[in-house]
Amino acid sequence: MGILRTITIRVLYAAALLFAVLVLNFSLMHLAPGDVADTISQSMGGADQEILDEIRVSYGLDQPFIVQLGKYIANVAQFDLGYSFFYNQPVSRLILERLPATLLLVITAQIAALLIGVVLGVISARKPKGISNYVVTFLALFGYSAPVFWTGILLLITFSLNVHWFPVAGMRDVTIEGGFWTHFADVARHLVLPAVTLGSIFLALYSRLSRASMMEVLGSDYIRTAKAKGLSDHQVVYKHALKNALSPVITLAGLQFSAVLSGAVLVEAVFSWPGLGTLAFQSIIARDTPTILGILFFSALVVIVGNLLTDLALRLVDPRVGGRK
Amino acid sequence: MTRPEVQEEDTPQAQHPVIESWAMFRKNTAAVAALALLILITFGAIFGPTLYPTDPFEMVWAPFSPPGEEGFLLGTDYLGRDLLAMIINGAKVSLMIGLSAALMTVMIGVTVGALAGFYRGIVEEILMRITEFFQVLPTLLFSMVLVALFGASLPMITFAIGIVSWTAVARITRSEFLRIRELEYVTASRASGASNMKLMFRVILPNALPPIIVQSALMVGSAILFEAGLSFLGLTDPNVVSWGQIIGSNRQYILDAGYTVTIPGVAIFVTVLAISLVGDGLNDALNPKLRQR
């Protein structure tokens, strides 16, 4: 009933946020020292004032801020994020090329962290004095305090340089030939260390929260009823309790899109993973403003859409969410 | 005339809240040890450069001389610079940026949260929308963009970290204000004619402080990690040494000299770990009700 209206409101709201990101993006581009004309003249090896002015006119840089902003937004609406003079490619194509690698890394890391985190959390909630509790506490402290790029380098030294279990960098070995499964195995081998590194930050979060949430649920009345009915411990925990204990964990996971993307930048830099983070890093070194801002816009888009989907999914799964408002 | 001696042991006396909290804090051994360690690190950062005056930028020996050999406790890096001198001088930058960025997040966060929670209505609506806007921007990417566009000076880096991290503080402050503003003593001081300013900062804020203090302590740790990340990527003032930057500049040489990366990482890890343990201790000390869980 009201769900359609809720969805419409959420989507409109997401669009408004996106619009705000665009305005911020454009203002940053405007405020930053140097403009497109400077970049072009640099790549030509310098130009005099007349040519600079000409370029500015042909790119519409002489027009008032509001007009330029309108043009920029109209362009973005058609998914034209500008042109990278460093890569000699449209920014949108650059981003779409790099997107799959980042998504692969981020999704693998998140799913692994969620699965392992929930399992650890449930085990330690059932045995509050067991060894798994120390594991969760240790993971939480480590995950919070260790810089993620350092964790990555330590894993790299241990598992790639010392024992050669995993490749040192990149996403695939170009010398490998064979069918789909050979390549699949190759990418999977490259993926292990980056995904473990990125997952380590979030594993701490999820295991701690699912432990707390599980303990709370296990103490509630309906669990006592289920036990009194004579259900086995296993059934009580995994069929009755887990469903309710998961809700806050999923909510939290949905809020992590922004943090995951930030972590991915560092992890990609350590493992030379050919994704958006590496692109961001390279374009910052090259002072390639259109690409940098394109990535910022695009990752905000990913976060907004991700939040929207989590929100809607939770509303569908858990009727208690968003009863009012 | 002398007053009669009062038997103090029998009547429990209300102590000053700070003393009471300290007594609670002291029970957490890990937090006390972490606090001692933090004090030690801070002293090292302040007085270290005087006590160990080797210039962190100077080439003092052959590159990649391993720790303990040739007279350098932590060895030398890829340019033959003394790693110990770099770690000591890096501590200052890491701690300074950590503290000032955390201070900035607390000032923005408390102001936004207090205004939103106190005035409600349209003010709250607008401020919370702004908060959400900042939560949508991927933090590290946004500060990378700021530093890249406007220059990698220490104030700019501090600003770039602060401007993306204040949202958590704002949310906590707001929810505390929402809770406390309905309490009776607030109504009482409103009735006795306290101005809004006084209500906000003299009546409500002191009672909202415990969770804010805990969050601020954690903020220092995450700001240090944040700075380390930025400088690892090379987005740092080239004229100063920082821990993340040592890792970033030596990382091509991990095959020859893993310690040039491991040691500064341990410095970051230990510092942030100590801060989060102290944060845990503060949480126990300031919210005694949570202890029973």
Sum this structure up briefly.
The complex is a heterodimer of chains A (325) and B (293). Chain A is mainly α.
Q: Would you tell me the structural class of the helices and strands of chain A?
A: mainly alpha
Radius of gyration of chain A: 24 Å
The geometry of chain A reads as: globular
Please tally the helical runs of chain A, counting DSSP H or I stretches of 4 or more residues: 13
The level 1 CATH classification of the domain at 89-291 in chain B is Mainly Alpha
Overall shape of chain B: elongated
Portion in helices of chain B: over 70%
Cα(first) to Cα(last) distance of chain B is 51 Å
Q: Which class best fits the helix and strand makeup of chain B?
A: mainly alpha
Q: In the CATH classification, which architecture of the domain at 89-291 in chain B applies?
A: Orthogonal Bundle
Strand content of chain B: under 5%
Number of separate strands of chain B: 0
Q: Point out poorly predicted stretches of chain B.
A: none
Helix proportion range of chain A: over 70%
CATH third-level topology of the domain at 89-291 in chain B: MetI-like fold
